[in-house]
């Protein structure tokens, strides 16, 4: 971690030029800053999302080496069930070689099944797992993925999250499996963020339209790692918040900086019919990461990255499970 002096030395975009023109901004309020960090040091990690298979993963790893983009986590959105055992094994081996956490999405979700409410104007139920069988499918995916060496699972349903947390508590899946909450069900206030932490979440993706004050409010009640798209896909709003990245870290730490891509076609559920766009967008997501890291460096705010290879969330608060004290 950097010292307090180096944090103080960080500057805001255009700060010197605007001050010279009499347009300087008010000083940052130290009370807005998050008091939390990752275990082992560091306040931010990186994530490349929407990496849908071994070929896309190879593109991401090659481009990250070429552009010198450090990666802590790579995530996939189509789901465990959209990959063969051989494909999952190949992805596990490739990420293990680079000491990168691989996160795969679990099971059925409401947007893809026969339920009509998600297609209504109210978008009722969303990605949640509809009925027992959908929860069972998510658990099946979790067991299969972890048996193949996957250590991080992405969930989009509170019940699935709690069930998988209980499963790792009871040894059904490995105890060091991390559970990540999808942006599509992410909490938008401190109370709901805290509930997700208590249900077993190890990192929680908040919607990318939350304000800086919203992040500070969340950090006053929870230190659970936060995931946030610095650039969001169009179906999540298409927000591009690259110039805010230093302040997003200051307010939201510990935070995963997710490098998504706006103005790009949707690729879930992925298949070879979407190969060209999947590979080209995978490559561009890494480049977007380089742009954000360059901004941090220019503003003197790049010194608090968590060590590469770190993945665990630290001590978090949980609801008691059956049989616990």
The count of β-strands is 8
Proportion of residues in extended strands: 5-15%
Separation, N- and C-terminal Cα atoms: 36 Å
Radius of gyration: 19 Å
Number of helices: 10
Instruction: Please state the structural category.
Output: alpha/beta
Uncertain residue segments: 1-8
Major sheet attributes: 8 strands, parallel, barrel
Order of helices and strands: HHEHEHEHEHEHEHEHEH
What is the 3D shape?
A: globular
Q: Overall mean pLDDT score?
A: 91
Question: Which bin fits the share of residues in helices?
Answer: 25-40%
Order of adjacent strands in the largest pleated sheet: 1-2-3-4-5-6-7-8
Structure description:
The protein is of the alpha/beta class. It has helices at 4-9, 15-20, 54-67, 85-98, 131-147, 158-169, 190-199, 212-219, 245-252, 275-298; strands at 44-48, 73-75, 101-105, 152-155, 178-181, 203-205, 226-231, 255-259. The protein has an eight-stranded parallel β-barrel, surrounded by six helices. The radius of gyration is 19 Å and the shape is globular.
């Amino acid at each position: 971690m950097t010292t307090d002096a180096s944090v103080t030395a960080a500057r805001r975009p255009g700060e010197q030029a605007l001050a010279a023109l009499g347009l300087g901004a008010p000083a940052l309020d130290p009370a807005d800053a998050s008091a939390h960090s990752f275990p082992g040091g560091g306040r931010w990690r990186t994530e490349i999302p929407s990496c849908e298979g071994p070929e896309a993963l190879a593109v991401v790893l090659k481009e990250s080496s070429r552009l010198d983009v450090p990666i802590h986590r790579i995530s996939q959105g189509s789901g465990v069930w959209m990959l063969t055992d051989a494909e999952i094994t190949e992805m596990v081996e490739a990420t293990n070689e680079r000491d990168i956490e691989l996160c795969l999405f679990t099971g059925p979700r409401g947007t893809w099944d026969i339920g009509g409410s998600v297609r209504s104007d109210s978008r009722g139920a969303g990605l949640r797992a509809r009925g027992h069988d959908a929860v069972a499918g998510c658990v099946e995916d979790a067991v299969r993925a972890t048996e193949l060496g996957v250590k991080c699972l992405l969930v989009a349903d509170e019940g699935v999250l709690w069930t998988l947390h209980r499963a790792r508590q009871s040894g059904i899946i490995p105890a060091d499996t991390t559970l990540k909450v999808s942006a599509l069900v992410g909490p938008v206030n401190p109370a709901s963020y805290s509930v997700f932490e208590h249900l077993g979440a190890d990192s929680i993706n908040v919607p990318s339209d939350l304000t800086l004050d919203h992040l500070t409010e969340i950090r006053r009640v929870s230190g659970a790692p936060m995931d946030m798209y610095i650039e969001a896909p169009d179906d999540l709003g298409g927000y591009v918040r690259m110039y805010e990245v230093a302040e997003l870290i200051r307010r939201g730490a510990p935070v995963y900086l997710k490098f998504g891509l706006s103005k790009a076609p949707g690729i879930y559920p992925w298949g070879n019919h979407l190969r060209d766009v999947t590979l080209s967008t995978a490559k561009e997501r890494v480049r977007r990461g380089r742009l954000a890291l360059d901004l941090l460096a220019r503003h003197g705010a790049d010194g608090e990255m968590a060590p590469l290879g770190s993945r665990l969330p630290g001590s978090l608060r949980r609801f008691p499970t059956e049989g616990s004290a």
